[in-house]
Amino acid sequence: MPLDISLTPQGFSTYIANLGIRDATDDFVLIKSDVPCVADGVFTQSLFAGPSVTISRRHLEDNQAQGIVVISKNANVANGAVGTADAEEIIQLVANETGIAPENIAIASTGVIGRRYPIEKIRSGVLGIGQKLTAADFSAAARGIMTTDTVPKLAMRQVGNAKLVGIAKGVGMIEPNMATLLTFFFTDAAISANVLRSIFRSTIDKTFNCLSIDTDTSTSDSAVILANGLAGAVPENEFAQALQEVAHELTLMVAKDGEGATKVIEVNVDSALNYVQAKRVAKAIVNSPLVKTAVYGADPNWGRVAMAIGKCENDREINPDNVVIRFDQVQVYPGSSSVEDLEKLRKIMSQDKVNIHVSLNIGESSATVWGCDLTEEYVEINGKYST
C-alpha cells in the first residue's frame, strides 16, 4: 500500500524492524515526532488490560506525547509484575536512545496473551535506534504492526496546509469497548488539547466503536492521535471531517480483512428512539453468528435478522408490527417469501458487501455498524493461533 509522500505530515520519523518477537516479519515500530505533540488516546475497558494499555493511559493523561512504540506478535498481557517491568524498561530504553522523556512515550502491544516478551532480543534490537530513525514511512509502519492481518491498513487526507495519516491493525478479537484493535493517527495540524480530545473521541465512537468481527474485546485495544502543530492551525470542522473519513476508511479495511472473512456486513438502523438504541440493535444483528453465517453462504434466511432484533428484549418500545427490514433496497419484512424475492435476496447476499437496513419507526435516531461474515477459515486460524 504505497503512501502518497505529498500527504505525509511533517516532523515525524520512524524506525521499523524485526527483533525476533515471534517470526521473521517486522515486529517493532517506533514513530517519533520532532517536537512534543498534543495527544489523546482511548483504550480497552477489559479487566485484563495489559501494561501497554495501563502505562499509555497514564502517560497520555496530560494530553502530550512525542512517540509511540508498537510491538506486534506479543500482547504482553497476563504476565504480572514482570510484564509491567518489561514494558517500562522498553519505554526507558527508547527514551535513552531518542531523547524523548519516558512519560511522553506511549506503548502498544498486540499478539498472543500470556507470554513474556523476548526481552533480551528487544534490549539488543533497541540499541542505536536514535541514529536509525528515518523520514516517516507510514506504509512500513502499517505493515510492522500487523499480526494475522493479510494487508496493511493506511489512509490519509489533506487538511488545509496540514496532513493527516492513520494506520490500523486488527482482524480478530474485535468487539469494541472504547476503540478497538490498534489504530494510530498522526498530523502536523495545530489543534488544542480540548478540541482534539472532543473530535477524536466522537470520531472513534462513530467508526471503530461501531465495528465488530467476533464479539471478543481485546485486552490491548488502543487508539492514539498525535498532532505536532508544525503546519499551523486548520479549521476545526475540516479537521473533524478529515479524521472521520480516515477513521471510516480504516474501519472498513478492518471489517474486510476480518479473520477468514469473505464479505463486509453493514447494518444501518434508523427511526430509533436514540443513538444508543439504534447502535444496540445494529450490533445485535452484525454480531449474530446466524446472520454472519447466512451472509457467508448467501442463504436468503432474512428471518435471522428478525431474530437478532428480537434479542433486544429490554427495548420494549420496539413493536414488530412497525419494523421494516431491507437488504439493500429489497424489503423482506413485511413482505413476501416468493421464489423470486428469495432469489433477489440471494444475489444481494452474494455481493462483497451486504447492506442490511432496519427501520424501527419509533423515533428519529440512527446508527451504522460494520462487521463481516463467519467462515470455516476463522475457526482454522483461531484453532491454531498460538502454535
Per-chain topology:
Elements lengths: L11 E6 L10 E16 L7 H9 L4 E11 L5 H19 L6 E8 L6 H8 L2 H4 L1 E2 L2 H7 L8 E7 L2 E8 L12 E9 L2 H14 L15 E12 L2 H21 L7 E9 L2 H12 L2 H8 L6 H8 L13 E4 L2 E4 L5 H10 L4 E7 L5 E8 L3 H8 L4
Parallel strand pairs: 3-4, 8-9, 10-13
Antiparallel strand pairs: 1-2, 1-5, 2-3, 2-9, 6-7, 7-8, 10-14, 11-12, 11-13
Provide a compact summary of the structure:
The protein is an alpha+beta fold. 33% of the residues lie in helices and 29% in strands.
Walk me through what this model shows.
The protein has helices spanning 51-59, 80-98, 119-126, 129-132, 138-144, 193-206, 236-256, 275-286, 289-296, 303-310, 339-348, 376-383, and strands at residues 12-17, 28-43, 64-74, 105-112, 134-135, 153-159, 162-169, 182-190, 222-233, 264-272, 324-327, 330-333, 353-359, 365-372. The longest helix is centred in the middle third of the chain and has 21 residues, at 236-256. It is built from twelve helices and 14 strands. The model has no long low-confidence stretch (mean pLDDT 93). Helix content is 33%, strand content 29%. The strands form two sheets. Strands 1, 2, 3, 4, 5, 6, 7, 8 and 9 form a nine-stranded mixed beta sheet that branches. The protein has a five-stranded mixed beta sheet with strand order 12-11-13-10-14. Strand 3, helix 2 and strand 4 (105-112) form a beta-alpha-beta unit. By secondary structure, it is α+β, with helices and mostly antiparallel strands. It folds into two domains: 5-256, 4-Layer Sandwich (L-amino peptidase D-ALA esterase/amidase); 264-383, Roll (Ubiquitin-like (UB roll)), CATH 3.10.20.340. The protein starts with 11 loop residues before the first strand and ends with a helix.
